[in-house]
Design a protein that fits this description.
This protein has 411 residues and is of the alpha/beta class. The protein has 2 domains: 256 residues, Alpha/Beta hydrolase fold, catalytic domain (Rossmann fold, 3-Layer(aba) Sandwich), CATH 3.40.50.1820; 149 residues, no CATH class. Helices cover 49% and strands 10% of the residues. It has 18 helices and 7 strands. A 7-stranded mixed β-sheet has the order 1-3-2-4-5-6-7, sandwiched between helices. Helix 11 links the parallel strand 6 and strand 7. Helix 13 packs antiparallel against helix 14, helix 15 packs across helix 16 and helix 15 packs across helix 17. The radius of gyration is 29 Å and the shape is elongated. The termini are far apart.
């Protein structure tokens, strides 16, 4: 059995990987007339931006490999069979298998979305916690009726099917689940966006197990499904289908926005020389290297602001961010007034350093891809505002700007 099976392959840069659960296979996602992936492909945006594939692994209730007699096992051990004899292996071993599949089958892709059902979500989590190059390519994890806290039936089933590694792992409070959950909580900042879908009629995986620890309301979706219907929507109007489709479309939309927000190279051809923020730096006798850095960050901040304003995204949060940056400026300027800073060059350097240090704490923002570089540019946007009395020397004023402009005109 090949570990992957394409539903749609068109050399896109994004791929959706469907991961089945306990005793499942690609039929996990199939309805009477279609399948979950095929229904998604009816959308042109998804079809043009995503490849879709199944990840398949061995999972059987009765492990025939273990049940073979010693004589047959010995015979097979030394025979020259052409294919491997599959057996049930643990969740962490399956996670390692998924890592290898991503490494060698998904190497052409920039971004991976995992849609996992039931135990397949635990296999996916084990892989995601590996913190490897492969796992970091996963940008979103959609968890469908995944037993994050285990299932009671695994305890009883394991009594009937002893030594079944997957049933052992699926038991509540199993060492495997405890380890995965503890690591998951500790690694939140390094993990992909995760949405937890649970079936309100699910008698296999209860709600309290289908959603992980310490998640927000926006990260969980209640579906009018049972454990099996949640992976095979009966129509495009099904809640699970609409919700998953929305997540994929939003991913493409946000990726386009983030691409536009990437830092762009700045070529100084004097186009900003007459801007107020540049003149303020020059009259304060700030070094040309710091002035160039100010121009470059200002250029990117201008592009960022115009994009957000045009799309009406996070304008209140952006306004609050400007206020926080101005506050940091006032602290550093106070140091100049008190003599803790010796000159304007040190003031500019210190405020730039302060923005860098506070980027992920005091200046933390949910706005996509706004980083310390943009925030430094936002500082110079503030100094470019005539209504803001922000200067780089104690005694500078607008009179100095006028005098400087007149001197330049006489040259």
């Amino acid at each position: 059995m090949l570990p992957i099976k394409y539903v749609h392959q068109n050399n896109n840069k994004n791929v959706v990987v469907f991961v089945h659960g306990f005793t499942g296979d690609s039929d996990t996602w199939k309805t009477n007339s279609s399948s979950f992936p095929e229904m998604l492909l009816a959308d042109k945006v998804i079809q043009e931006n995503f490849d879709l594939m199944y990840f398949n692994y061995h999972s059987e209730l009765v492990d025939f490999y273990a049940a073979r007699s010693s004589a047959k096992s010995l015979f097979r051990m030394f025979s020259k069979g052409k294919s491997a004899t599959a057996k049930n292996i643990s969740i962490t071993q399956l996670g390692d298998h998924l890592k290898s599949v991503v490494e060698f089958y998904c190497s052409p892709y920039q971004n991976i979305i995992i849609v996992a059902h039931s135990m397949g979500g635990l296999v996916s989590k084990s892989f995601l916690l590996s913190n490897t190059h492969e796992s970091r390519k996963v940008k979103m994890f959609l968890s469908l009726a995944v037993p994050h806290n285990g299932v009671d039936w695994a305890t009883f089933s394991q009594l009937l099917f002893k030594e079944h590694k997957q049933l052992i792992d699926l038991q509540p409070l199993s060492s495997t689940l405890n380890s995965i959950n503890q690591q998951w909580i500790k690694s939140q900042s390094e993990l992909p966006k995760t949405i937890y879908f649970y079936g309100q009629f699910d008698e296999v995986v209860k709600q309290e197990s289908a959603i992980a620890y310490e998640i927000t309301e926006s990260s969980k979706v209640a579906c009018n499904d049972d454990h099996f219907s949640i992976s095979k929507p009966d129509s495009t109007d099904s809640l699970i289908f609409v919700a998953v489709k929305r997540q994929l479309l939003d991913f493409i939309s946000n990726a386009e926005k983030e691409s536009n927000m990437l830092v762009k190279p700045f070529k100084d051809e004097g186009q900003l020389d007459n801007e107020l923020f540049v003149l303020k730096l020059m009259v304060a006798d700030v070094h040309k290297t710091l002035i160039y850095n100010a121009k470059s960050t200002f250029f990117n901040a201008e592009y960022m602001r115009k994009l957000l304003v045009h799309q009406s995204i996070g304008l209140e949060e952006l306004s609050a961010l400007y206020s926080q940056i101005e506050y940091l400026y006032s602290i550093e300027f106070g140091k100049l007034l008190s003599g803790d800073l010796k000159d304007s060059n040190e003031l500019v350097t210190n405020i730039h350093q302060s923005i860098l240090e506070k980027d992920r704490e005091f200046l933390k923002t949910t706005l996509p891809l706004i980083n310390a570089y943009h925030k430094t540019g936002m500082l110079h946007q503030l100094t470019n505002d005539l209504d803001k009395d922000l200067w780089w020397a104690q005694n500078n004023s607008i009179k100095d700007i006028k005098a400087f402009r007149e001197a330049k005109a006489d040259e």
